[in-house]
Specification:
Elements: H1 28-36, H2 41-57, H3 65-81, H4 85-104, H5 107-121, H6 126-145
Helix pairs in contact: 1-5, 2-6, 3-4, 3-6, 4-5
Amino acid sequence: MQVKLKSSRDPGKIPSNDEIKPCKIPSNDEIKQFITQAEAIRSMITAAESFGKCIASDREKKITTSQIRNAYGTMKKLEMLGWNKQTERELWLLKPRLAYAAGRHGEGVKILKEVISTAIDCVNDADSFKRFCQFFEAIIAYHKAYGGKD
């Protein structure tokens, strides 16, 4: 489900909160499908865009890139190392890092923690790890594209 904006807006302008539809947070079943099924790529990208837009623009759920930089940086390091037992261990350790960030920051980080933690629970091999990395990266990319700030 793509989020549609009012057609009267300027294409180069970041949408206001009035122009953004209510946040669409992916369900646990959707997240599991994104991580475990390669053919779910289109729905994963659509959900990542909607969720990234939400955490960049919604006043109550808005988060900054600096609030999630630590977890994202760790994920990128693990991605470069490739899937192995140590990567799996470090991936699971992202969950308490996200919980810590959620405790320090607002509602948006708490929601991101739930989404990413659910995705981590679905990772069990190299392919699902790759899809997890793609999902996390897509959320961050759309967050930045829709005005996420430091």
